[in-house]
Amino acid sequence: MSDFPDTWRKPPFIRNTLLRRGLWIAILAYVVFTMATLPIDWERVVAGMDRAAKIFSGAFPPSFARADLLIDGFMESLKIALLATVAGVALSIPIAFCAARNIAPMPVYYLGRATIIIARSFHPVIVAIIFVKAVGFGPFAGVLTLTVYSVGFVAKLLAERIEEIDFGQVEAMRAAGAPFFSTLVYAIAPQILARQIGLSIYQLDSNLRASAVVGLVGAGGIGATLANAFGRYDYDFALAITMVIVGVILVSEAISGVIREKVA
């Protein structure tokens, strides 16, 4: 009989048994402490359930009587998403080149990475509140918000793709005496083009969803229409809006999936 076991078990992430169990106990204790110290008012929770039941009972059946208002809000969201995607992607390309360690000098690399980190640091709702305070209510604040959101996402992933390219083509052009800009266009751009197109399509889809969220704080689009419906206690119209949002997102998800398959 062999001295070696017949089966293999993946070794634990933390090999020290005492340390591993102690960590689990600490996590469990912290969860219990958090639940015990959070100010949860169970009477308000019960009252909230009653209010939620009234909202849902008032939402059915959904009302499409003000379809023109719904279409106007949705078209505004589409414009916000489209403009923000174009502006965000256009800004993301040079920032991504600056943030790629393999082609950018170290000071430029740190500047590019800092720009991406700042763009990714805040949730779009927080950025929307800042822009609403700065430029006022309306779709322009939404465009600015989603432009920043697009830069944080597209520039980060594009920079990572640039760092993964086959660097032999770059070295060959440098050895032939090609200038820096020609090297970017002919040696790097063809290798990242498919990822760039895929990211742009995905970001348009993401911006369309996010435009509904930032509209809730006054940045225009269908989110503002939804917030007004809730403010007027028009729950049936609010349900109609949410149904349209879900339907549009499903359609855009299917279209972007097909396009990404064609591009890949």
List the SSEs and their pairings:
Layout: H1 17-37, H2 42-59, H3 67-98, H4 106-120, H5 124-135, H6 139-163, H7 168-175, H8 180-214, H9 222-231, H10 235-263
Helix pairs in contact: 2-10, 3-4, 3-6, 3-8, 3-9, 4-6, 5-6, 6-8, 7-8, 8-9, 8-10, 9-10
Task: Please describe what this structure looks like.
The model has no long low-confidence stretch (mean pLDDT 84). The protein starts with 16 loop residues before the first helix and ends with a helix. It has 264 residues and is mainly alpha-helical. The chain is 78% helix and 0% strand. It has one domain (67-263): Orthogonal Bundle (MetI-like fold). It has ten helices and no strands.
- Overall geometric form: extended
Count of the domains: 1
Amino- and carboxy-terminal Cα gap: 52 Å
CATH homologous superfamily name?
MetI-like
Q: Calculate the mean pLDDT score and round it.
A: 84
Counting DSSP E segments of at least 2 residues, the number of strands comes to 0
CATH class: Mainly Alpha
CATH topology heading: MetI-like fold
**Biggest pleated sheet:** none
Outline of the structure:
The chain is mostly helical and 264 residues long. It contains 10 helices and no strands.
What key attributes describe this structure?
264 residues, mainly alpha, MetI-like fold, 10 helices, extended
